[in-house]
Design goal:
The protein is of the alpha/beta class. The chain is 48% helix and 12% strand. It has a five-stranded parallel beta sheet, with helices on both faces.
């Protein structure tokens, strides 16, 4: 058998959390240390596609489509690089579920079944999901640095996001989830993440 197929998969983690919890900062910190960073779908799609509170059915299909493009990259790269994703399918679904409940989008039921099928592929399942949380004041401060398109200041969206994503983790049986508080700076938060990884038997270097 080709050597590439005998080589062990390297670590693949997903940073989940509401806008302003520090996903991009943490992912970029790991990228600087050699990890492959996969940008959040809202950053990967065209700036003409509305996101957050302004998104609709077509936005949801586009956002999951952007994440879907990472599937081949992940499958090919897991034996060569450590991978960190800012959000992933479950984050896309959490926002789609909220918009579905608000009748802003009809995409959620279709996307849920598609993602269920995708995650049957072992290589596309992360080793660990890290759900980032921060105090509302921290989130507000960080969101002030974002452009208008990426801001999502709705208290309802923020609170519903967390119940929605925990529901979706259960629905899709993705139980490898840890919660991380990100009110501290990136270095302290990264140290906490490394501790979480080790507690799951995942040995990686952050340096």
């Amino acid at each position: 058998m080709d050597a590439i197929f005998r080589k062990a998969r390297l670590t693949f983690i997903v940073l989940e959390g509401f806008s302003g919890t520090g996903k991009t900062t943490l992912a970029k910190t790991l990228e600087q240390r050699g990890w492959m960073r996969l940008a959040e779908s809202a950053h990967a799609v065209s700036s003409e596609i509305p996101v957050g509170e302004r998104a609709d059915t077509f936005s949801d299909f586009s956002l999951v489509g952007a994440t879907m493009q990472y599937a081949s990259i992940i499958a090919r790269s897991r034996r060569e690089r450590e991978i960190v994703a800012e959000g992933y399918f479950l984050s896309d679904l959490a926002y789609a579920l909220i918009r579905y409940e608000l009748r802003k989008s009809a995409a959620y039921p279709h996307l849920l079944e598609m993602v269920r099928n995708v995650l049957r592929e072992r290589v596309l399942r992360p080793d660990l999901y890290l759900l980032l949380r921060a105090h509302p004041a921290t989130i507000r401060r960080r969101q002030e640095e974002k452009n208008e398109r990426e801001k999502n200041v709705s208290k309802f969206f923020r609170e519903r996001y967390y119940t929605a994503i925990e529901y979706i983790h259960g629905e899709l049986r993705q139980g490898n989830l840890e919660i991380v508080n990100t009110d501290s700076d990136a270095e302290k938060t990264l140290a906490m993440i490394m501790t979480k990884l080790r507690s799951h038997g995942i040995e990686v270097s952050a340096s």
